[in-house]
Give the backbone structure.
Amino acid sequence: MIGSPENSAGVGRAYSRINDGRTNGGRVRPTYARCRITPTKHRGPTCRNFAEGWRSSSIRWSANHRRRCPASWRKETLRKTIPAFRNGTEPFMRGDFERLIHDAERANFSGWDFGFLRDRLIEDPLPWDYVRRVRQQLPAASTMLDLCTGGGERLASLAPLPQCTIATESYPPNAPIASHRLRKLGAVVVQVDEETQNCFGPSGAQDGRHPRRGLPLADSSFDLIICRHGSYSSEEVARLLRPGGTFISQLVGEDNYPDLNSRLAGPRTVWIPPGSPEPPTLEEFGLDVLERREAKPQSIFKDIGAIVYYLKAVPWQIADFGVERYLDRLRHLHEEMRDTGGLRTHYHRHLVVARKR
Ligand SMILES: C[S@@+](CC[C@H](N)C(=O)[O-])C[C@H]1O[C@@H](n2cnc3c(N)ncnc32)[C@H](O)[C@@H]1O
């Protein structure tokens, strides 16, 4: 028995049940995982019977459980109960194809939180530290704009925020998530049209103060504008920054995880078709670029579940991706990854730091 209801860290009855091999009138007799979650807090149906889950290749932990029960505890519990774990073969690494896919498909993704990929997508660090660059500018900024905030996770991690902090988000499901997260920190989220992220800037075709591609914010309002993994119009950045204001962006490059596309034979998204004009630069709108860097550090997807989760969360990596459509290719890649220890590739980032004259 791993831990009984009575000895589970003094927090009441643990909820996750582990099969100890005995049965009870044909039913699995539960023992209890070391888990702090009380039954009342722990409503998800997913880890009700761990043993059954294991047999049917569908071990899943509710989002609530994942948040509250440290991974190390779960692993410890697994190690003591599941033979594969005792032998040092971690199910997350060596699990069967169906279970990995199933888990990835069912896993929660909200905002821009990739916590599910921790320990499963391993990346070398970038040669710069975006968060540190932004933090260095915060004391001098009383107004800040975060473009494309996603679920507001990164912006929240920068707290305390400048007195007036605004974040834009265009993807409708994200706006309320970001708003809920950032409201407590005094920041305001503005839901904007996705065309405002068009790097070609406001369209002249429309009348009005803020045409479709323009952000509904006043000129020269911000001491600091930041943009991480989004996209922006140089013209709008220049319009919104006050003279002397700073712009810091870290964008995803086009050569991001290229091996996902090549190994799965998935089409690459073309953002700007060949032969099209280049988007206007920050310099063209009166900014001095202080720093421009590019990096392609190594990364490794450790299992096929991590790949499926990523491709579902980031639909533009392989635009026509779907598990059913790619099933044979995923299975083939899974076999290879089992032998090689994962899919090795690289990610691609650009850093730009600029100041308005
Ligand atoms: C990649 S997220 C980055 C969020 C945040 N700045 C960060 O660094 O964590 C930026 C943008 O991706 C877009 N986005 C996110 N999920 C999307 C989805 N499923 N479909 C379309 N666009 C999405 C939204 O426009 C969002 O503002």
About this structure: Residues 112, 148-150, 153-154, 169-171, 228-230, 315 surround S-adenosylmethionine (CB under 6 Å). The chain has two domains: 1-88, 130-356.
